[in-house]
Design brief:
RTA1 like protein-domain-containing protein; membrane; transmembrane helix; transmembrane; RTA1
């Protein structure tokens, strides 16, 4: 629940002293449990996190991580599964930290863990999203892509890592400051905001490029040229591939909502009324990321879009299902004669 009182105001009041302990400043260094001198209102969050909700969320991320690891190994989708699994492991650690704060809101280790892990987790999970566009473009038709498909991971992954580094620096500064050094805390806050704003820009760019590609693909495959282009047309019409795209789109929207919420939450500084409102955090941070991660884990590419697999046997089986018997026909980065003809048809259709 929100206290309705900012952390800065509480710290200013504490600095005046109480007659027996002048200028005592409650912080994660001077306080070790809730007491008269160390009330819950003086913590950065200003509330005791809900133990049951945080355990539930932590377990949800643990399940998503295990599922991602399993399918990543079984279907050999290393990059996508590693990003999702590692991000979920971080999230699990972060919410385990919040569960510890439910027992003792002045637990400095738990506070620092939840700050860093929950901030960084979604950024790592987004790497899985960015890795898919190259494979989808190659599977459907590279000629419809705004840029060469191979460039997408080369741009979006480093951009996402840059967001990660910036947020990690800001989170480290904020975690080390706690509530003892409000100025340092605010500096950490500004760095985190910069990282999240950059992440929103990167996500928006990804959404525009991916959306434009899918829009052009829909138009192309409605025409005769697209329907003759096999196995790409088989991929486009495949029900499991459609479910995979739906899961990616749902996760994308949820992560974008989370980032916008984080900007609003951090913009008022640490201890502002939004940060001190647990229900909004649970809905717009916890559940947005948990559901998004759950979608990526429940609809893994190894099952729903096997052309992302590193296994030639899995790709060969997928191509056979999509309407072509050759393992190198789609998703391998190599182009055979039928693909070249299809690409030429696509280029003519796009230019028409």
């Amino acid at each position: 629940m929100s206290t309705g009182i900012s952390l800065s105001a509480l710290m200013a009041a504490a600095a005046t002293g109480n007659g027996t302990t002048p200028a005592f400043k409650p912080s994660y260094k001077t306080c070790h449990e809730i007491s008269k001198l160390c009330p819950i209102e003086m913590t950065t969050l200003g509330y005791t996190p809900n133990f049951g909700v945080n355990i539930f969320v932590a377990l949800g991320f643990a399940v998503a991580a295990v599922a991602s690891i399993y399918f990543g190994i079984a279907k050999r989708t290393w990059g996508f599964s590693s990003a999702v699994a590692f991000g979920c492991i971080l999230e699990c650690a972060g919410y385990a930290g919040r569960a510890q704060l439910a027992k003792n809101p002045w637990n400095s280790t738990a506070f620092q863990t939840q700050i860093v892990a929950i901030i960084l987790g979604p950024t790592i999970i987004c790497i899985g999203l960015y890795l898919t566009l190259k494979h989808v473009a190659r599977a459907l038709n590279p000629a419809l892509s705004l840029f060469p498909a191979r460039l997408y991971p080369l741009f979006f992954v480093p951009a996402d890592v840059s967001c990660l580094v910036i947020q990690a620096i800001g989170g480290g500064i904020a975690a080390s400051a706690g509530s003892a050094d409000f100025t340092l805390l605010q500096h950490g806050n500004r760095v985190i905001i910069a990282g999240i704003v950059l992440q929103v820009v990167v996500l928006a760019a990804f959404g525009v490029i991916a959306g434009l590609f899918l829009f052009r693909s829909r138009g192309f495959f409605r025409g005769a040229a697209g329907q003759e282009m096999m196995p790409a047309f088989g991929v486009w019409k495949d029900g499991r591939f459609r479910l995979f795209l739906g899961a990616l789109g749902g996760a994308y929207v949820l992560f974008l909502i989370r980032c916008v919420y984080r900007i609003a939450e951090m913009a008022g500084g640490w201890g502002n009324h939004i940060m001190r409102d647990e229900p909004s955090f649970i809905v717009l941070e916890s559940f947005m990321v948990l559901i998004g991660s759950g979608l990526l884990a429940a609809f893994p590419p190894g099952v729903f879009f096997p052309l992302m697999s590193r296994s030639p046997a899995i790709k060969e089986s997928a191509n056979a299902r999509y309407g072509h018997g050759g393992v190198e026909s789609v998703g391998s980065g190599k182009v055979d004669a039928s693909d070249s003809a299809g690409t030429e048809m696509a280029e003519r259709a796009v230019s028409a």
